[in-house]
Amino acid sequence: MVDKKNLRTPIVSVMGHVDHGKTTLLDKIRGSSVAAGEAGAITQHIGATEVPIDVIVEKCGNPSLRERFVVPGLLFIDTPGHHAFTSLRSRGGALADLAIVVVDINEGFKPQTIESLQILKRFKTPFVVVANKIDRIHGWNPVPNASFLVSYNKQAEHVQQYLDNKFYEVIGELFNIGFNADRYDRIKDFQHTIGVIPISGHTGEGISDVLMVLLGLAQKFLEANLQYDASGPGVATVLEVKEERGLGTTVDLILYDGMLQKGDTIVLGSLGEPIQTKVRAILKPRPLSEIKSEEKFQQVDKVIAAVGIKISAPNLDGALAGTPLRVATAETIDKIVKDIKQEVDAVHIDTDTMG
Length: 355
Ligand code: GDP
Description:
Elements: E1 11-16, H1 22-36, E2 43-44, E3 48-52, H2 53-59, E4 73-77, H3 83-86, E5 89-90, E6 93-94, E7 98-104, H4 111-123, E8 127-132, H5 148-152, H6 157-176, E9 181-183, E10 194-198, H7 207-222, E11 235-244, E12 248-257, E13 259-261, E14 265-268, E15 275-278, E16 281-285, E17 297-300, E18 302-304, E19 307-312, E20 324-328, H8 333-354
The structure holds guanosine-5'-diphosphate.
Guanosine-5'-diphosphate (GDP) binds at residues 18-24, 80, 132-133, 135-136, 200-202.
């Protein structure tokens, strides 16, 4: 049994073609989690939203499931389709631990969907495919926020048939690019078969199924990768490099291992030599209850993985989204600089050859 104490929150990215519904799906996950309320609120990070396991389990309407899962929740990256998540990588793997690939069931696969799938395949990232916008199927009678099967069983037969046909087109397209796939509820072995879940980001149908399948994937395939050392040196990936009034150039990042403290020496990727600097401030979003405050952010002295934060530090100009950031000491800095340079170079060769 894995030690729960050192298991961090898996990081999930949402991928897929523009307009197929990534943002809507994320909003729905966030919104319904807020509504789930009492089980524990979601936490807003910089660039990410954390949904605790209690909220997910409550949303799925089956508290007995709580015991089955050891992960503390899921951390969703808020910038779907961000270049850093679709073509760059960290530590030789995809930045995210898990992914959701969104495809509009009425439109089928597009080049961006296929590109996402190829990247996931390359990095062996576990993922689910959601066949979105089922509410647009002619004659669909929505059952808001229901599990897909509950809703499906309430549809007229010709509507079910139409959905089945569209659904099997998606399965066929996945097969054509080398994936065995099936409807998520028919899969026994998620290692060899990709789960596909018909959903609607608008009505919320199927969302609980998506969350459950993600937890299942995390549980089955990620436990080993999710172990982390809470007191170890921080390891992160840069999400965005941004000017903030009063702070100068700042970097938004996802810390996925170890600890980051104010004053730490950090090394991060840039197009030239890696940047070496010291953390001046660690910033988190101000809680909603304090929204009246002028300041968007609150400062903290220390954070532990997995979190999305903003940092300010001298010399951040030239930092590169999608590249690694690591905490260094006098003993480790030379090796870290070398490793980061190599990683950034490798990524650039990769993305160049990927076209
Ligand atoms: P993104 O570009 O992939 O992030 O796509 P968006 O989430 O912005 O959605 C693109 C458009 O499709 C918007 O007009 C959404 O309102 C709409 N949309 C997204 N999901 C659904 C859905 O499940 N049903 C319907 N009917 N429309 C949707």
